[in-house]
Amino acid sequence: MPLFQRNAWDQDTSADRWFKAGFSIVVFREQPIGIGGKLLNPKAPKLIGWTPLVEMKNIAKKDGIKARLIGKVEPYQPLSSVKDRSALRLIEDAEEKSLISPGITTLVAVTSGNLGIGVAFVASQKGYKFIAVMPAKIAIDKQILLRYLGVEVILVDPAINGFKGLLDRVEQLKNEMENVYVVDQFTNPANPDAHFKWTGPEIWKDTEGKVDIFVAASGSGGTLTGTGRYLKMKNPSVKLICVEPAESAVISGGEPAYHKIQGVGPGFVPEILDTSQIDEIVTVTAQEAMDMARRLAREEGLLVGISSGANAAACLKVAAREENKGKMIVTMFSSGGERYLNSELFAQVKEECVNVNMAF
């Protein structure tokens, strides 16, 4: 399958022309620093952003979809998820306001994993200690990665007071320790600001303003709010679609409940989620999300996580409508699939591998 790569400073190439010519992957990059014939970026956080767009042509063709399905591949981030963006902006914002100091402040965050991993990356680069507060018994792969990155991980039983139990543990840490700063992705406007400053402009530039519909699941609400705000500022007719778990469709007015789409559907409407700009809500079951994530792996060669599957599944529902024929639908592939090896997403192949290896 053809591949075309161009730099963000090259203004002569039409992304739309290359898409039509059959190029399935278009990569856009900021200009690197060349030293001694090698590529070098002296500050690792500067690697965050400018992730590629991928057109899902195989799935669209197989399903008879006449719209263009485009995914933004966030596993290209340094720590492999869209949350690297939020982590960087949340920490930079606190530094700009002189709320934190390297070597003095301890950062604390409630996370299901991906934000924590992003914070661990930025914190290590800048010299902050970081403590992650997580719900127990889920996201084992992310717990492993956080500990591997040197993060202190505190687990809270989600069966006791739910999300409030996590917040209570954070408050306890603030009372027990000095110089604690809470990296709060659910209430801090710096989270959607990351996507207004970076994600939205990237999508607009890389599609040359041809995006018609933006589809994204809501966890903290940062990606949906910030990206949607920018795209609607550039073109008010861009439609913004929110994806949430069918099992816990709280934004739609349903009751919170347990579900298996990690990183989205926290069971409440986050403070930073701007529901006024949402044009439609599409619900996706965990089974639909996992089935689509597996399809993305086998039919498009894209190894992405469960919420990415939910986004793609929602895209197919929207793209199947007659009124969306020929439109460009852009979504987020929020994290890499390797981060879910111990989840239900990989359960069948994991069992097969274990059984095969037992024969030796």
Automatic annotation (TrEMBL):
Residue sites binding pyridoxal 5'-phosphate per the record: 114, 219-223, 307
Biological processes per GO annotation: cysteine biosynthetic process
Keyword RNA-binding: no
Alphabetized Gene3D superfamilies for the sequence: 3.40.50.1100
Pathway assignment: Amino-acid biosynthesis
Record's keyword terms, sorted: Amino-acid biosynthesis, Cysteine biosynthesis, Pyridoxal phosphate, Transferase
Entry cofactors: pyridoxal 5'-phosphate
Pfam families xref list: PALP
GO MF term set: transferase activity
Record-annotated Tryptophan synthase beta chain-like PALP domain positions: 47-334
PANTHER family per UniProt: CYSTATHIONINE BETA-SYNTHASE
Family per similarity comment: Belongs to the cysteine synthase/cystathionine beta-synthase family.
Record's protein name: Tryptophan synthase beta chain-like PALP domain-containing protein
Organism: Urochloa decumbens
